[in-house]
Amino acid sequence: MYKYLIALPVIAAMFSSFAYAKCEGGSKTLFSCSAKSGKQIEVCDAGSTISYSFGKPQSKPDIALAVPRKFASTSQYQGIGRDMTYSVDIPNGNTTYSVFFSSDKLGDHNIESGVNVSIDNKPVATVNCSGGKDIVNNLEGVDLKPSE
Questions:
Q1: What is the pLDDT of residue 109?
Q2: pLDDT tens string 97-123
Q3: HSE on the CB side for 5, CA within 13 Å?
Q4: Could you give the 3-state DSSP secondary structure of residue 54?
Q5: Which residues are bridge partners to 35 per DSSP?
Q6: CB of 61 closer than 8 Å to CB of 16
Q7: Is residue 35 within 8 Å of residue 127, measured between CB atoms?
Q8: Got the DSSP string for 36-82?
Q9: What distance in Å separates the CA atoms of residue 38 and residue 89, rounded to the nearest whole number?
């Protein structure tokens, strides 16, 4: 099952000559933001696939992968508590990129967003968005299976 997932990003990374761009070809931007490093985090919904990319704008992405929709998952705010948190998980072999957006429904706290990276279900990195006005968040209500 995961052999297919591992092959996609390797092909994208090795043979991709495209520069980093917003979601294209009729795909919907589920999430996009600039990280404090200046790199762009983006998740796109092309219908049959969910893609994730991370890298400097106008350059080849550091990471670019697309997975069949059935392998991606989501966590949705359930209406309990102050923090309204939404995420989409994109697996790549034993690595998972969990793109998230969280806000306080009372407005007392800043928005938190970015990507959590885990390997074998163990957290290894978090890249936070810079918090600017460039955040695009369409994670709420995304039609994916629930995250485990």
A1: 67
A2: 999 999 887 776 678 999 999 999 999
A3: 19
A4: strand
A5: 129
A6: yes
A7: yes
A8: TTS-EEEEEE-SSEEEEEEE-TTS--SEEEEEEGGG-EEE---S-SS
A9: 22
Q: How far apart are CA 142 and CA 45, in angstroms?
A: 9
Return the pLDDT at 75. Answer: 93
pLDDT in tens, 7-60: 333 333 333 333 344 788 889 999 999 998 999 999 999 999 999 999 998 889
**What is the b/e burial string over 72-101, where b = at least 16 CB atoms within 10 angstroms of the residue's CB?**
bbbbbbeeeeeebbbbbbbbbeebbbbbbb
> Please, which pLDDT band fits residue 133 given cuts at 50, 70 and 90?
confident
Helix ranges (H only) for the chain are: 2-15
The two three-digit tokens of residue 91, written as one number: 């697996």
Cβ–Cβ under 8 Å, residues 44 and 146:
no
Q: How far is CA 10 from the centre of its chain?
A: 18
The amino acid occupying position 128 is: N
SS3 content of the chain, % helix, strand, coil (to 5): 10, 45, 40
The pTM score is 0.81
Contacts of 8 (CB under 8 A, 6+ apart): 65, 66, 67, 92
Q: Are 91 and 71 in contact (CB under 8 A)?
A: yes
